Amino acid sequence: MSDSVSRSRSALMGTISSQAFTIISMLVSIVSTPMMLRYLDKDAYGLSILFFQITNYLGSFDLGIGTAVIRQLAMYRGDDEHNQLMINRILSTGTIAAGILGLIVTIAAFLFAPFVPGIYHLRPDLASDAVPIICWMGLYAGLQFLQRGTGGLFFAHHRQTLIGTSTFVVTLTGTILTVIFLYYGAGLWSFVYSAFFQLVGSGIVQIVLLRRYYPHLRILVKYFDSKLLRELFNYGIFLFVNGIAGLVIMQTDRLVIGQVISLAAVSVFSLTTRIPEVVMGLIAKVMDNATPALMEITTRESDEQARVQYKRILVLVTALCMLSFWLVVSLNGWFIAIWVGPSFFAGKLVLVLAMGITVQQTLVRTGSSFLYAKGITRSVSLMGLVEAPINITLSIFLGHRIGLPGVLIGTLVASLLTSVWYTPYLLSRHLGLTLGAIAGAVVKPLVGVSLAGAVVYGLVWSVRHVLPDSLPLFFIVGAVAGLLLTAFTWVFFLRTPFAAYVPAPLRRYLLVAV
């Protein structure tokens, strides 16, 4: 089996396992969210969402060293003495740097926490809990830094399924514990207790797996390499800048909505976009699991191979994005009405805008992943710095004037003015791809799947107005709609480029030539 196919299949298995875990997590969330809303009102639930948004921001301040460590580890996969030494050196350097950055993040959380009640105009009972909870979540974010490099070792060496399975079990248990803590009256502190359980559980799992698969690993001060740290920093700093810009673009909406509109609006918006975000997260896993393979291809093989892989993945991501767009737009409003009640649905316009943003950003991220793998980080990051303030300015301005849709329109417009055109330009410059080739890989599945999707949308709309709001009926209609649109997408857009990766026993059923 060639290295290319082996890498692709490794990425595919990692993707399949992570997709399965994400789907199971989504099902658990479907069950657990109504339970959480039973013990938290809209404002309290909205505040809990903001806690995690703030934690995500704090967790991004690793200056890109986590990703840089994975990139370095992907180059040392052998079991010889040299590879073992380099792994020890990379992880020791990265872990020490991460520990220092984690301490800084924790201090920043303690300094920021007292201002939160005033920024979001919290009522007294929420304000009294908000400050200490943010301090504890800041400590949680800082300690997480220490686990990123060691966890990234499995990712870099194509052992995504191994680390992903154990992490999934710990996370799932944490979600169940959150509901239990809420039931026993812990309130917003339930999320803190659950987060620290997951932190400790993940740490124990990593130690066990590292001792099993990397018995020669040693994280020691004597392996710290200041020259290597500079290399990690030089590569990672622009990833960090772009990551911050990405957080502003994709996640600041909730912070803006909470300040400009209300915490209750944060709850409604978050529940409206919960399923869309999970679906797009599934698509993003395709790129996440392919990253180590991309790094090998772009550093060790020809640009032609990189171009072939990019066009193939772009077709896949575009087809999956449009498949998801039409299924979510068709079914999400109906599902929310059954799930938590129609008062938690923000409306069809907000849903379409939110899905438009996720599709737009997923396609941009696909191109950025290839640029990062090739080491082109500076240009992408600088454009992110331009996009972020435009996004915030437009979102706040339009949010004040036209409400919730304005926040999303601001994000869409900011991206159209910046990364949507600049990323293809960089790909054409550094990978030798023509803009016509990029457009061709996007337009065909985008238009083709959309035509079929519009038909499915019309059918679902017609059926919904006849049937009552029943969960079994919803799942039957959803399954039929999903099966029809997925079959169409596979047969006309994905079957040919991905035929080589279909296991032999499934070829006949998936209409692939044997």
Shape: globular
H/I helix tally? 18
**Proportion of beta-strand residues:** under 5%
Q: What is Rg?
A: 23 Å
Low-confidence stretches: 1-7
What does this structure look like?
There is one protein chain. By secondary structure, the chain is mostly helical. The chain has helices at 3-39, 42-59, 65-73, 81-112, 116-119, 124-156, 160-183, 189-213, 226-260, 263-272, 274-300, 303-339, 348-373, 378-402, 404-417, 419-430, 435-464, 471-494. α1 packs parallel to α7 and α11 (274-300) runs antiparallel to α12. Its main location: membrane. Pfam families: Polysacc_synt (PF01943). InterPro entries: Poly_Biosynth_Transport (IPR050833), Polysacc_synth (IPR002797). Keywords: Cell membrane, Membrane, Transmembrane, Transmembrane helix. It is found in: Cell membrane.
Give the topology, please.
Layout: H1 3-39, H2 42-59, H3 65-73, H4 81-112, H5 116-119, H6 124-156, H7 160-183, H8 189-213, H9 226-260, H10 263-272, H11 274-300, H12 303-339, H13 348-373, H14 378-402, H15 404-417, H16 419-430, H17 435-464, H18 471-494
Helix pairs in contact: 1-7, 1-11, 2-6, 2-9, 2-10, 3-4, 3-6, 3-9, 4-6, 4-9, 6-8, 7-8, 9-10, 9-14, 9-15, 11-12, 11-13, 12-13, 12-17, 12-18, 13-15, 13-16, 14-15, 14-16, 17-18
Short description, anyone?
The chain is mainly alpha-helical.
Task: Based on the model shown, name its key terms.
Polysacc_synth; 514 residues; disordered N terminus; 18 helices; 82% helix
